[in-house]
Write a structure and sequence with these properties.
Number of helices: 11
Largest sheet: 7 strands, mixed
Helix content: 40-55%
Structural class: alpha/beta
């Protein structure tokens, strides 16, 4: 059973983290962050005072707590209908472009980054793509760079691969069967699913805090994917994040967010909802 976090202790936690690091959780959803802090206390079998003391005196401990506070749920081709829409309705419009710039914000362990690379390769667009993938969690970024996942945990998500790649018998949109072996090395005995090396060398993974609002990489993007991240922020922070995405998208560029997320006003009128994506308005 998770420990209940009192309002006073919660505010003190946020203040302490802000004081001893560059991370500011004050605009996160209180409900979501309280739940995550409670889980940290329960998992570490500690109390709030001990936690704050350790945070104040040990930077490595603080970084570990930051990693524990971030949500890392992801999967290969998560929500297959979204990826089918991208393959059928978004990528064809980018196919003639000399360079395709894509930013995966909050990429977690990288499965969705590699999902996009698979789509790009199937469309003959991989060589022209520039992929930046970022997350606040240094631990999951290490997993993303390695491209190695537990087979026992991820094997169920191969069904997503089949649905998006047309391996389930649905040939209505002209997609032909794509074998796993084209992109994945699967070893059930070693309990591993490994991304093929030619995909591993493509993305650039960086640690980045969306809350800070500072972009340390140059250029604008044709497609930004940030799914199931802003749902953990309060309304004010969501607006700032969407404003940042708007400013770093080319006119006509696309933004993909989670199925249960929506663009917060006053930024919402700067995007046009198109199927399962949001398109940056050409004029504003």
């Amino acid at each position: 059973m998770e420990t209940e976090v009192k309002d006073r202790d919660f505010r003190l936690f946020v203040k302490t983290v802000r004081q001893y690091s560059k991370y500011d959780f004050s605009d996160y959803s209180d409900k979501s962050l309280k739940r995550m802090v409670a889980k940290v206390l329960s998992d570490n079998k500690t109390d709030i005072n001990t936690l704050l003391c350790n945070i104040s005196n040990n930077r490595e401990y603080l970084d570990n707590i930051i990693n524990k506070l971030t949500v890392t749920t992801t999967e290969l081709f998560r929500d297959p209908l979204v990826w089918k829409y991208l393959r059928k309705n978004v990528l064809p419009g980018l196919k003639t472009w000399s360079t395709i710039n894509i930013w995966h914000a909050g990429c977690s362990a990288g499965q969705e980054v590699y999902s996009m690379l698979i789509l790009l390769n199937e469309a003959g667009m991989l060589e022209r793509a520039r992929i930046i993938a970022t997350d606040i969690n240094s631990e999951v970024l290490g997993i993303a760079r390695s491209g190695k996942y537990r087979y026992s945990f991820n094997k169920g998500y191969l069904d997503n691969f089949d649905l998006v790649m047309g391996n389930k018998g649905d040939k209505s949109d002209g997609v032909t069967h794509v074998p796993y072996s084209r992109y994945l090395d699967i070893d059930s005995e070693l309990d591993t699913i490994s991304i093929k090396p030619f995909l591993l060398e493509k993305p650039v993974f960086k640690r980045h805090d969306l809350v800070a609002g500072e972009i340390t990489f140059p250029g604008k993007f044709d497609l930004v994917i940030c799914r199931n991240v802003v749902i953990y922020f309060n309304y004010s922070l969501q607006s700032r994040i969407f404003e940042m995405f708007y400013n770093h998208l080319h006119p006509g560029g696309f933004l993909v967010i989670g199925n249960h997320e929506k663009i917060a006003a006053p930024v919402s009128d700067r995007f046009i909802k198109t199927g399962r994506t949001y398109k940056k308005a050409v004029t504003f």
